[in-house]
Amino acid sequence: MGLHITMGDDFEKYVEITSSLPGKSPTYPSFRPDCSDLPPGKAFWIIGRDRDGRVAHVQALRLDHLSNTDVAEQLGSLRAWFTDPTLTAGPGSSSRCDAPAARSITGLVAYHGDIWLRKDFRGRDLSTFIGRIAFGLAWAKWSPDFIYALVADWHIEKGVVDQYGYLHQEPHGSVLHLPAFGIDDDDWLVWLTRDELLTTLRTSASRALGESTVGRPTLHNGQYPNTII
What domain count does the chain have? Predict the structure, then answer.
């Protein structure tokens, strides 16, 4: 079983794809172009397809300039999900961030989300691969001061976050209520600093040099043409 990886920045196309995936929850407003500003250079998506061309994996990243603010304020104000919350969040919407470290996450900040892997691909140790692709592309494109994600309890309990490569985690990072979107979450905040991101990538590269290059992805014209086994 293999994955063929592509990437892009057309989020209308991305949402069209993700909305048709059985078993995947709807893409959140943070990666929906009708809710958030997602211009080329600021956000991109990653899609993995099986040998038959069917989508088996998706994830997305965006860059926020938070030099004069921080992730706690970004989340609490709903601007992490909406360019203008007053226009698009809907009635009864609220958000708060109770993770203390969020006040320290500032500067150029990459948000990593909408991660989904088809059921028949789970349990195959792909979580590390998924995380490293996201980390590597985020570093190559943006060299952010921080990269973070918001994850449900089960990601913590099953160790999925550790496999992705996130070193820090705090509960109640996003207590989010969006009735208009059917969202009622209490997610963990997980993150890496810039130095930790670079160290993680260097460690992964060093390990890869000692392994066979067969099946290792190579980026070419926005695509990874190699098959990942």
Answer: 1
